[in-house]
């Protein structure tokens, strides 16, 4: 709050009976700061002098309303010559009579920051009810000093700049909340669409605030730096959704992949969960095995992957029921596995065609897994003429005898 300066001087109207030399008051420049207005700490008297500078308004206040605004720089003596409303009571006034209050208000434009003290609830089609925090900057100024004093001082009893600015920030948050709801209703705006609407939100808020604040003598001239923050969990969900979309996987597959990544990281650091799996003989081989199971789930086969952390025997049971031997360690693994989950060895195997159905059969198998036919070591020959028969041939091309 500013301070006032007093200096003895002979004011205009000193010829009125009972008057004496009056004091001169003004708002000390270095104490203005960010204050919208300042009230002289005591009531002014008849014929007191007040100084109004170029960047100020002077307002004379009496009986709950502003009676006179001094908007030109000058020194004014508080008499009926400058305040017409005092004419009716001037005859009864004496030199020591207190006639009212005096305020100064700044003309310049101010800038400030605003933000939501409590999150705003927003119902989103994708994420449900989301709690948003909104921050930004705004510029404001006094548009009508008479309305400002009448509404805030006379009606609301606010005399401090902080109270008026606090009221203004509350109006901004209320208008922003209303604007977000309007855009959601009329344009189906969701939380993911808000960055594209920031300029429109600012413009709509300035237009709405004009009608809200003009009745109180204030004007919002600009909005800038509007920032709408989503809760941390919603931001994480958006990141996961983007990753799943890029990888072409669902939520369970994405979580399984993250679990494998954490296992590998722990193993590389020599501790944590990775060390536990290494003790069980899994290591990188276990990661490859889990990756294959997840791949089957992504392709629609083999059902959902086994739950992370299930007992090893429960995870290996399906492989033992219809498995093949690892080319290096001999452990049972699922057919088609490219790396052994027990030793990590690549499963590169030679194949040959079945003589009966033509299916590719792993070298060393005695019977075809497709038709059950025996896998002969050499080419199949005709039982009548001894001619070699091509795989899948049903009749001998030399004598026409049916192939056995």
Description of the structure:
This protein has about 400 residues and is of the alpha+beta class. It has helices at about 145-155, 160-185, 200-215, 230-245, 250-270, 270-280, 285-300, 310-320; strands at about 10, 20-25, 35-40, 45, 50, 55-60, 65-70, 75, 100-105, 110-115, 120-125, 130-140, 220-230, 325, 330-335, 350-355, 360, 380, 390. Helix 2 crosses helix 3, helix 5 packs across helix 6 and helix 5 (about 250-270) runs antiparallel to helix 7. The longest helix is centred in the middle third of the chain and has 27 residues, at about 160-185. It is rod-shaped, with a radius of gyration of 44 Å.
| CATH architecture title of the largest domain | 2-Layer Sandwich
Low-confidence stretches: 1-21, 273-291, 297-321
- What can be said about the biggest beta sheet? 5 strands, antiparallel
Structural category: alpha+beta
What's the SSE pattern?
EEEEEEEEEEEEHHHEHHHHHEEEEEE
Question: What portion of residues is helical?
Answer: 25-40%
Q: How many distinct folded domains?
A: 4
Distance between the termini: 111 Å
- CATH homologous superfamily heading of the largest domain: Band 7 domain
Radius of gyration: 44 Å
Quickly name the level 1 CATH class of the largest domain. Answer: Alpha Beta
**What percentage of the residues does DSSP assign to strands (E)?**
15-25%
CATH topology of the largest domain, by name, is: Tetrahydropterin Synthase, Chain A
Helix count equals: 8
The best one-word shape is rod-shaped
Number of strands: 19
Q: Which whole number gives the mean pLDDT?
A: 74
